[in-house]
Amino acid sequence: MTRPRINGVAPPDPLQTNQTYAQSHRQRFNMAGYAAPKLPTVRVGIIGLGNRGPGHLRTLIQIEGVEIKALCDKNPDKVTTARKHLEHTDHAPALYSEGEDEWKKLCERDDIDLVFVTTPYYLHAPMAVYAMRQGKHVASEVPAAGTMEECWQLVQTAEETRQHLMMLENYSYMPFHLLTINMARQGFFGEVVHGDGAYNTSKMGNNFGRDFYSDMWWLRQYAGRRGNVYPTHGLGPLCQVMDINRGDRLDFLVSMESNDFAMGKKAAELAGDDPHYAEFAGLEYRGNINTTVIRTLRGRTIMLQHDGTTPSPHNLIHGIHGTEGAALFDPSPPRLSKGDHKWVDADEFAALEKQYTPEIQRRMGALARGSGHGGSDMLMVWHLIDCLRNGLPLDQDVYDAASWSAIVPLSQWSVLNRSSSVDIPDFTAGAWQTNPHNMDIQLARGGGSTEIAAVAADSQDKLARQWQRDHGGKS
Ligand SMILES: NC(=O)c1ccc[n+]([C@@H]2O[C@H](COP(=O)([O-])OP(=O)(O)OC[C@H]3O[C@@H](n4cnc5c(N)ncnc54)[C@H](O)[C@@H]3O)[C@@H](O)[C@H]2O)c1
Question: What's the pLDDT tens digit per position in 351-399?
Fold first, then answer.
């Protein structure tokens, strides 16, 4: 088969990569359920201080037992601005901003335990691999990898170094998503047969904004790729509901994409008035709506959608269809069904919510409420830190990061090959059959100390006030 070219460049063939790894890959060490030695204080370095990095920084400094040791961005202004968030705190990080490769120096420090990687996503895997090789755990933004090769490298490096690689897939920690994960575990849905997930939200303003993303990197990705470039917000929570990589695994997918009906037009319009956009006119943009369908080895299905372009309302779907019940998050209001062909009414919804809300949300939900993405940012990062401090397995392991991120290159391959089906590799090398749950939503394995809550509550107030002063109410 001749390989299609995108903007004159042939994308790497993920099938060849998978064939090569399939011949030689052996699991060196099972990272599922892995607990690293306890860290009384988690010493953190952050690489990438654009939109997301400072968000994590503000969250981290509200959590007891965290020390911010180093901050890095290739843009010195971003480092200076991020540093300001620490002015009224005891954190005194080293600052790195002298160029594209300074992040390596941050990774090489011997006083850092955990590196947050919050750069553009095509930099995540190289940075994560380097950090793990320097003996650091890594919290990587989504997706954790952009190519098949990188997915494998993450798995092999985590197994070799026994360092955690947790992808920061936050949407599983939204209150309704947590509720459905618990309901699935308690059998409310019976057998979960199918899930619908999406990240359908227009990024037209952001992507074409002159200064929204550094170097307009997202727009360049939209021009240089096909397929679902942002799969994990829809897929991650469904994989937690369906116990993917622990009892079942993603088997194969087909992906179909519309043409682009909007981005090329917008680029041409903007270029007419502003030479800044000249390089973006005339490019072939990825299709506006991508729909990927995944089948699991146990014969269940997932529909995953990405629409970053049309002006439709924001929609994550998060629909769950089981033999005995169903759930649907978007379009709001969220709904639950007890398997009698109708949604329950508001009173029954409230009763079910009360019954099935998991401990992590009960204990920490109120404190997290003010943080980003429906409180999910705080819950995720708080639990990550809590697990590291208590020597517990993390909520998402490297196999989750690799298999959820693999949708990026594999959906592209399918789109470029008339939606042919493509296998999703088994990064666990068979261990998925016996791997344990690793999202401890009931806080069953300790942790969840109230001291952390008290610190968080106090500093959250202070920080909220400071944030208001600094930003005049903008979030
Ligand atoms: N989980 C979520 O809800 C969520 C939300 C937003 C973004 N994200 C993810 O977070 C990541 C960052 O997104 P963003 O919106 O903050 O992008 P951004 O462009 O605002 O920030 C990226 C930063 O990385 C810096 N950078 C680039 N190359 C670097 C290098 N070589 N060394 C050091 N710094 C470098 C840039 O200067 C920039 O400040 C993306 O991968 C995105 O997918 C996730």
Answer: 999 999 999 999 988 888 878 888 899 999 999 999 999 999 999 999 9
- Asked whether the bond before 331 is cis by omega within 30 degrees of 0, the reply is yes
pLDDT of residue 249: 98
What is the 48 CA–ligand 1 centroid distance (Å)?
6
CATH of region 14-170+441-471, choose from 3.40.50.450, 3.40.50.720, 3.30.565.10, 3.40.50.1950: 3.40.50.720
Spatial separation of the C-alpha atoms in residues 437 and 434, rounded to whole Å: 10
100 Cβ closer than 6 Å to some ligand 1 atom: yes
Each residue's pLDDT tens digit, 50-75: 999 999 999 999 999 999 999 999 99
Cβ–ligand 1 contact at 125 (below 6 Å):
no
- pTM for the complete prediction? 0.94
Residue 55 CA, ligand 1 centroid: distance in Å: 11
Ligand 1 neighbourhood includes 220 CB (under 6 angstroms): no
- What is the maximal distance between C-alpha atoms in the chain? 62
From 57, 97, 118, 212, give the residue whose CB has the most ligand 1 atoms within 8 Å, as the site to mutate: 118
* CATH code of the region 171-364+399-433: 3.30.360.10
Supply the pLDDT for residue 5.
Answer: 59
Q: C-alpha angle with apex 105: 100 to 110, nearest 5 degrees?
A: 160
